[in-house]
């Protein structure tokens, strides 16, 4: 089942320990995260060539955790936290741009 913007925002806020796992984030915190998510999707499309064919309100299950990690990285400084989203970006790129090579190129090192 697809995830909403609020699902992505809540996960991002939990990753940086702004929202506890047993509570919903405040409306203000959720707004910061959902606005950041919208801007992130636009940036990924325009700057990274990731043309998503779905709306932010219907984020695919296979992508939502990595997108939440990227949102967490963006909003962490706002809340005085830190989060490294490099793995999330690498995983997202691997999912969006699969390796379609038939055989890997063999390189000989001298």
Describe this entry's structure for a reader.
The model has no long low-confidence stretch (mean pLDDT 92). It is elongated, with a radius of gyration of 16 Å. It has one domain. With 110 residues, it is an all-alpha fold. Helix 2 packs across helix 3.
Oligomeric nature of the chains = single chain
Assess the beta-strand content as a share of residues.
under 5%
How many separate structural domains?
1
Number of helices: 4
Task: Compute the CA-based radius of gyration.
Answer: 16 Å
Order of helices and strands: HHHH
Uncertain runs with pLDDT below 50, 5 residues or more? none
Which term fits the overall shape?
elongated
Helical/strand content category: mainly alpha
Tell me the major beta sheet: none
| Helix residue percentage | 40-55%
Total count of strands:
0
- Residue-averaged pLDDT, rounded? 92
Q: How far from one another are the termini?
A: 51 Å
Features:
110 residues, mainly alpha
Could you outline the blueprint of secondary structure elements for this entry?
Elements: H1 5-15, H2 27-48, H3 61-75, H4 86-96
């Amino acid at each position: 089942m697809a995830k909403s913007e609020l699902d992505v925002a809540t996960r991002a806020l939990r990753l940086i320990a702004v929202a506890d796992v047993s509570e919903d984030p405040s409306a203000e915190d959720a707004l910061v995260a959902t606005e950041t998510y919208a801007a992130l999707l636009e940036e990924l499309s325009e700057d990274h060539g990731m043309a998503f064919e779905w709306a932010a309100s219907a984020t695919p299950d296979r992508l939502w955790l990595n997108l939440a990690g990227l949102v967490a990285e963006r909003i962490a400084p706002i809340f005085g936290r830190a989060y490294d989203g490099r793995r999330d970006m690498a995983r997202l790129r691997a999912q969006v741009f699969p390796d379609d090579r038939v055989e890997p190129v063999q390189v000989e090192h001298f």
